[in-house]
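Hey, resending since the last one bounced:
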Amino acid sequence: ISPPCGLSGLYTLRLTVVDASANVYYDTQRIWIDNKWPCAAIQITAVPPCAVVNLSEFATPPDCSVPWQLPLVGIAYDEYIDYTLPLTRPNDNFDYYWIKVQKQGGSWVQIPVLGPGGSCFYGTSRVGDPVKRCISGPCDPAHLDPAAVFGLLANFDLRAIDPLCSSSVSYPVPPDFLLPRGQCCDYVFWLWVQDRTITTGGPHWAQALWPVRICNDLKS
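The structure tokens again:
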């Protein structure tokens, strides 16, 4: 019988050795095996599906001293290896997630996410819950359980793309990321989630993309 979610859980290995005098010796080791992959999903729900994000709707007031927050919601989740055991490490094998954003054809910029004690660039706590367990295949809204829970992954400060206010954010912004006033362009948000599994190919991971058109309709 195939175990649920493949071979995942806490296992005991026993080595048996018999010497020339027929004496038997044993040694045991317990190991955690994780064959569950993370879930990644990202959305922008502050505007209707396929709608344009206009900076004027978020820049309230439209000055550089106040963040222009665009909420990024989604799921950054890695299942516990065995839900019947204490939900602490190493049973809790979640590592982190990050979010980057790119202006079409430009540089990728990693943005701050929610973290303990404030903002950092790596989220070390799960966000949301896909509800369904032992997920195989894409973890996106079209394949998720209808009861899946989306949480706040990060707030993207739209001042970062405005040439007049980009210097007000806490991280460097390259020139090819900026959007001059009166112009529109496509941006893509990239969510990456990974666990701590040790394999020859690296940890288990999942990613999700969310493209959106942004217009800098602010007055100069």
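The chain has no helices and twelve strands.

Sorry for the duplicate.
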